[in-house]
Amino acid sequence: MANRIDRMTASLESVVGGHSIYAARRQEFATDKKVPFKVASAPFQLTSKQKGEISTIGADITSYFKAVDELYCFNGTVRNILNTGKPEIFVVDRPVQYLFVRPDLIITSKGFSVCEIETSPFGLALAEMLNRAYTQEGFETMVDDGALPDYIQASTPIEGTIVYSNKTAAYSGQLTFLADEVFSGQGREWKTQKVEDVLSDKKKDEKGIYRGIYLGEYMTDPAVKMLLDQSINYSDRLIPSPTPHMEEKAVLAFLWDRRFEQRLRKQLGDPAFNHLRAIIPPTWIVGQERFFAPGMPDGVATSVDLASLSRSKRTLVLKESGFGVKSSWAEGVKFLHDQSANTARALLQQAQGSTDSLFVVQQFNKAQDIPMTYESQDGTIQTAPRARVRLTPYFSMAEGDTGRLVGIKATGCENTDLIHSSSASINAAVR
User: Which residue segment(s) compose the domain that 292 sits in?
Assistant: First the structure.
């Protein structure tokens, strides 16, 4: 069996080729290994019921994504909320255009729990790398080999650039993999460039641009600001669209806001609405507590008052919602039940007083402990008996092709509720 895993790791390294998976953002996690994490011995196995559930999630999440955009377009209250902290360049009406949405699915003892919806490409290449590697070794996976390139190439221009910034440079290797192995081929030519180099490209107005940057970088990176300021010349070819209202964690909160319940239920239909309520944990926007349909925990009036509750009564997560420096890569995630009362109060007061960024509070659903086998550094097979697993499925969002699974990966971590790819994590394709 050890030889089987040796071949699996070698297969993943072969797929990665000359691209890097990611560069550690903290020096203590730096490594010269081509694969900077643990590799599972086989694809993560789902039951037929779980596979069917993921298919339903794809249809319902993409429908909900569109429904929230319609709320933004036609409801002044939603518009004002989601425009919080946004410069004028982003609050003009423009069509929403995304290639995919990615719900983060935590596997709990009661089923899937959607803790966030992402639209950024970070992790998409890794999902494709893993899928190719396991397929190459003869495993069946949930995504057919070639499905992602076929979808991307049918949904993007023939020629273009994937752009990254100083902040996202750690993932430039994955973005280059996407350009070389997914966006390009069959007469198509895509490349990867840093923002500064794209700005000097005189032909950029004639090509597609895929955005491997966060819109919030507009406020901190002059080159990103210049690129987005100029995007009026090529807004129809900039993907994802510069529509930050759809890149807020706060979009999940509208499902639990009684002001919009009737409209969303009518638009989505009872089955989809009820299904989303079952998988999306109760979530509210800090400052909008009075509209939270289930009512605040233990009858408190404001989010700050949560600090007065015992830890057992505040099993909640505080998150910076978007358009802020800590709204990506779990940097702004705080488990309130892990904080002292004083620390929790300070964090919640900061969130309550913010005028530059939205914050949300979400019910915490603990991940189930699931055994995962992986190859250790000495080449032997080891088992993590209590891995907490997050699935990241990518669902298509192109016009005329929405809700289809085009990528998925599993990440398992022990001894932490922050389940992200890291040197200690176990990663796998899904079958």
Answer: 282-363
